[in-house]
Design goal:
Length: 161
């Protein structure tokens, strides 16, 4: 298994179906970027937890919807040194998602909180893979990749709540 999902805030935020979808999309991305054997932690926590991480690591004293922490120096470097892992497992990074932000954003977007968690996880996963949105061109590229991934999710999604 390449995705480890931990719910610190609310164990019922994701159904088994969405847990599977989240694991599947992470697996697909790891394979696409030649990171087979890579592991990603997805931690769903409350606003206060994400606020403390945001303050500690980004000097921003506000809650946020998603934070990513990459454990690799770069994805390209990992691919070049893939043989060092010899098929073993290695940590790619962690994605932290705020349950409160997910609920609020899902309500605003008029879709399920589970779908919102998937959207945030995809966004966080792309950050782990080196995507960013600080510049317009980078933001467009990241948005395009998110859109393609989310179309896959929409094809496999059960009826909305």
């Amino acid at each position: 298994m390449s995705a480890f999902i931990t719910c610190l805030a609310d164990d019922s935020i994701l159904s088994e179906h969405y847990n599977c979808q989240l694991e599947e999309i992470i697996d697909q991305l790891l394979e696409e970027y030649d990171l087979i054997g890579g592991e990603v932690g997805v931690i769903i926590a409350d606003d206060q937890y994400l606020r403390s991480l945001n303050q500690k690591f980004r000097a921003k004293d506000t809650p946020t919807d998603v934070l990513s922490f990459c454990f690799l120096e770069s994805v390209n470097e990992t691919v070049e040194h893939e043989k060092d892992y010899e098929g073993g497992e290695f940590a790619v990074g962690d994605i932290y998602i705020s349950a409160e932000r997910a609920r609020e954003q899902a309500k605003q977007a008029r879709h399920s909180v589970e779908k919102e968690v998937l959207l945030l996880a995809v966004h966080g996963m792309l950050h782990l893979l080196g995507f960013d949105h600080d510049h317009h061109a980078d933001a467009r590229l990241m948005h395009h990749k998110e859109k393609k991934l989310l179309q896959r999710i929409d094809q496999n999604e059960p009826g909305e709540e």
